[in-house]
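User: Before I run my own analysis I want an independent prediction to cross-check against. Here's the chain; please return only the structure tokens and, at the end, one sentence I can use as a sanity check.
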Amino acid sequence: MAPEGAVVIQISVIGSVIAGVILALLIGGGCVALYLGLRARRAAASTLVANARLEALLGSAPALAMVVRTDGRLELPDRLADWLGLSPPPRYLDDLAGRDAGLTADDARALAADVAAAQKAGRPFARAIRTQGSSRALMIRGARAPRDLQAPGGVVLWVFDSTESEAEIARLAEEGAEARAAFQALTGLIEAAPMPMWYRGADMRLAMVNSAYVDAVEGADAADVVRRGVELVEGSGIGGPLASAVIARDTGQPQMQAMPATIKGARRMLRVYDVPLPVGGVAGFSIDIEDLEQARSGIKRFADAQRAMLDRLSAGVVQFAADRTLAFCNQPFRRLFAMKSEWLADRPEFDRVLERMREANRLPEVRDFPGWKAERRDWFLAAGGAIEENWHLPGGVHLRVVAQPLPDGGLLLIFEDRTEQVQLASARDTLLRVRTATFDNLYEALGVFAADGRLQLWNNKFRALWGFEETFLVTHPRVDALAEAAARQLAKPARATLIADLVRAATVERAQRGGQLEFADGRFFELAAVPLPDGNGLFTMFDISDSQRIERALRDRNEALEAADRIKTAFVANMSYELRTPLTSISGFAEMLSEGYAGKLSKDAHAYVDAIMESVERLGLLVDEVLDLTQHDGKTPDIEMLEVDLEAVARDAAAAVQPLIRRKKLDFAVEILPSVGSMKGDALRLRQVIEHLLRHAVGGTGEGGRILLHADGTAAAARIVVSDDGAGMSVDAVAHAFDRFAQPGVTRSGERALGLGLPLAKQFVEAHGGTIALVSEPGEGTFITVELPRR
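Assistant: Structure tokens:
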């Protein structure tokens, strides 16, 4: 067992060790605590710096944050409250809507709904709002608050000031709308363009074509043409449409070339344009120049034909270009001015041509040739139209020169050789003197009046006939003054106006007129006015006194004959009326004898009585015809216009002449077609027409002959034909067949010696507006046609 002192020492050592260990632990713990404290201090300082940086970033950020807690409380900076126009800052979400500031009630309700949806479903949102009382536009983006924000169930709202953005967006939207409108207008214009237009992408493939392009290539629609890549112009090699487009794309310069193409089965010439675009594609369009090429070719052909025609003219023609060099001259010009073709081939200038003319002695003789040449050089710049001159060349040659400035600055010269015309003018002057001498010695009185009515020429007979003084005529008086001076020579002075009327008709109306005047001494003159080719009028007077006296005697005799004819007609009419009474008595007594009132008659007596009654009937018809002719005296008889069945009328007329037909044993054929129809007219007169024609045919046809009655018609007219195979009529008889009271020698032999039926038939036909025609030859029979209009 250890000693107690040793135990105490041992306990002390252990306590010291334990105390040392505790002290060491305390010192170590203090060091650790010091280290951790220093590290925490450094972390806190770093956190403060980071917080300061974050606050600085938040202060300069374009967006401000606002936290909305579950109970609706708000955490927002003062700057955001200032954006909303709220002071003091709102505490709850409902306080964002103010009367004159903050959000509108609608925006506040919509924002509250978005916040509630974000709290419940965690769905982020974005909303654009405007603050009241300012033009500030705000964009709010919201999402559920993160856990580190220590706002469980809350929502973080980021508010962006989009005022400038909204203005920029509005401006861009407006520009976009304008661009879309311009694009639509341009698209419409391209679509409506009458010429094919297209657009190629950078790969030279077709990307767009218009309707004209589709129509030209006969495609279904634009999409079909683009899909199939149908080219307007065939070929893609050198000089083809794609080659031109590639050159335009690579060089950046528009290209144009003329190429043929087949459009709707027709070969056309197109002028194709390829225009490079900034986007890398190439736009193209084509213009149909087929008509232009044809016109250009036609103009060239016309120019060639014109030059060929100018070579055939007798006048010399030379044309100078705008640079005053010779462009063309015809053969007469070369002959007229002795120009050699090899010299003209060098296209000499205008001045050299004039000098060559002078050397050939083909210019007028002038003192100052350079000045004269300068004046002619000014013809190129003349603004007053064509210039005309007369050149008198040595040797008696007369040239008419016409200088016509051309629109292109050139000059056209025409040289007309008028030497022969000048000689003819001299001969004409001699001829005029001969004409004047002849004019003065004519038997007729002549005067020539100008278009203004003034007397220009007269002969001695004209002056002597009217008794005019020479001093009066040399003043070239107007026709009105001349007629007034001539009135004293006339039996009726007022008739002097006839002179002015005739002259005016010849000079103004260009018509030939005539008339007669009686002088106070009993002479008669025939007047005539004839228009002359030069616009004047020729007035002539011819003495017809002798013929006038003979005409007056013939007129008196004609009046006496007409009076005798009227007396004869009245006498015949009276006699016809007087014959009716005895004819009626004879007819009555003959009927009484036939009926047996005077006793029974023998067979021969009956035949005699029948002959008497037949003769009375014929004589009665003849008297009626004479009365019809004399009552109307050639005038149109009165008719009653009613609906008439022409078939029935024709058959009644045929039945009326049947006794005559049977008596002469004639072959009578009746052909009445249904087409004859009906018309407006007088049934009695139309029946008389047919009867007269049939009786005329019976009278001219021998026993056993043939007569035809034919009737037909159309929608416009009805036709009646009566023909026979009798002896026919002579040419003279045909000419007078329709004359009233024709002489017996004129008509055909037979029962109707006076020929009253045809004149009556003609009167009745013409009264219905129709026509009657007769054709006959001796020995060939007679053919009579009547046409009656239905209207």
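Sanity check: The two ends are 184 Å apart (CA to CA).
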